[in-house]
Design a protein that fits this description.
By secondary structure, the protein is mainly β. Helices cover about 0% and strands about 55% of the residues. The protein has strands spanning about 5, 10-15, 20-25, 30-40, 45-50, 60, 70-75, 80-85, 90-100, 105-110, 110-115. A hairpin with a 6-residue loop joins strand 4 (about 30-40) and strand 5 (about 45-50). It is globular. The model has no long low-confidence stretch (mean pLDDT about 95).
Length: about 120
Amino acid sequence: QVQLVESGGGLVQAGGSLRLSCAASGFTFSNYAMRWYRQAPGKERELVAHSSSAGGSTNYADSVKGRFTISRDNANNAVYLQMNTLKPEDTAVYYCNARGLRTGAVYWGQGTQVTVSS
């Protein structure tokens, strides 16, 4: 069974930091690009950060560039999102996402709530 198990969400004050973790199992992690998405109430799901399968290439939404960092540990089948200088507009459910390089298979985590208070 494919699993993406997320952790690290919570409540934090503006300016604070959180580190989200996503533990993957049930597929060949190194063959998948990993992404973090988020969805705020009433808004569409938004791509926040992307990491290539080897972790050598990353991309970020303009709204988080310079504040968030995606990283992955292929030896341990895990991807992380370090979130610094959090803003209230970062409040959303954050989802871990995996996409196969050639197969196009897509897997989603269950989502973890991040709430940033002002």
